[in-house]
Specification:
Distance between the termini: 13 Å
CATH architecture: 3-Layer(aba) Sandwich
CATH topology: UDP-N-acetylmuramoyl-L-alanine:D-glutamate ligase
Bound molecules: 3-hydroxy-5-(hydroxymethyl)-2-methylisonicotinaldehyde
Strand order of the largest sheet: 3-2-1-4-5-8-9-10-11
Order of helices and strands: EHEEHEHEEEHEHHEEEHHH
Number of helices: 9
CATH superfamily: Ribokinase
């Protein structure tokens, strides 16, 4: 089983490839990487970071890979620094995804209702196009709103199923994270998702107050790890969501700054045990 993770390298801050590579590899499959950019830190909560766009290097890298005949069972794309990189990912899918392979798009664009630095509405429109080429997409609620032209500020918990249904017009198997629902027993954080048969479902974990950077990357990477090991969607969503929540809980206990990312390292063993129990 061979996975390709297309994402940036943010050297500090534990997101994108510094999260995807360890989690997907530990899941027991080969994880090759295509770095889209190298940043000294990620862009959320840091200033003065360096940002080297690697777009110019990528065609020659892909040309060499073609000579090797590389083909992937799963391709996951994450942070893309420009519209031309979105086009590049579409071409990589055409050239490097095996027949019957899985294209997974994490439409990394924003959080808490706002787009990250460097992104605008034009990028959102292009990202909708990339999502249309995917089998699975893993937006957070903010990204799901941008992809479905929904005003984030006016979203209530009653709207989540409709947002999921709208995303299905883009891609058959969306999974939306960070959907908070408050009930008598407190607030829960739901993933609203669609299984292999097209059924809309949800899975709840405990809501831990605060904004935690890199949570989407941990979730997407664990989901890919599970799917790569042949785990069914229901179990994959459950295992990835619990791993992410456990990592957030530990980070909150540690009291580290949110911008330095999640302590998912401490939860890796539990994640792998759950994965091993569910893997075919
Ligand atoms: O975690 C998402 C992400 C990935 N890559 C870069 C980012 C962010 C979020 O801020 O800045 C460079």
């Amino acid at each position: 089983m061979r996975v390709l993770a297309i994402n940036d390298i943010s050297c500090v801050g534990k997101c994108s490839l510094t999260v995807a590579l360890p989690i997907i590899s530990a899941s027991g499959v080969t994880c090759d990487i295509l770095p889209t950019a190298i940043l000294s830190t990620h862009t959320g909560g840091f200033s003065g970071y360096t940002f080297r766009d690697l777009s110019e290097d990528i065609p020659a890298m892909l040309a060499q890979w073609k000579t090797l005949g590389l083909q992937y069972d799963i391709i996951i794309s994450g942070y893309l620094g420009s519209i031309s990189q979105i086009e590049m990912v579409k071409a990589i899918k055409r050239d490097f995804l095996k027949e019957g392979g899985l294209m997974i798009v994490d439409p990394v664009m924003g959080d808490n209702g706002v787009l990250y630095s460097h992104f605008d509405q034009k990028f959102v429109e292009e990202m909708k196009g990339l999502c249309r080429t995917a089998d699975v997409i893993v937006p957070n609620l903010t990204e799901a709103c941008f992809l479905t032209d929904t005003a984030f500020a006016s979203v209530t918990e009653k709207d989540y199923p409709a947002i999921l249904a709208k995303l299905k017009a883009l891609c058959p198997r969306p999974s939306v994270t960070g959907c908070d629902v408050t009930g008598a027993d407190g607030t829960k954080s739901y993933v609203f998702y669609t299984d292999e048969k097209g059924n809309g479902k949800s899975y709840a974990t405990q809501k831990i107050e605060g904004a935690f950077h890199g949570a989407g990357d941990v979730y997407a990477s664990a989901l890919v790890g599970c799917l790569a090991r042949g785990v069914d969607t229901d179990s994959a969503v459950r295992i990835a969501a619990e791993f992410t929540t456990d990592s957030i809980r530990q980070t909150a206990l540690d009291g580290t700054e949110a911008r330095y990312g999640l302590n998912s390292e401490s939860q890796m063993y539990a994640y792998l045990k759950a994965l091993d129990g569910a893997a075919k």
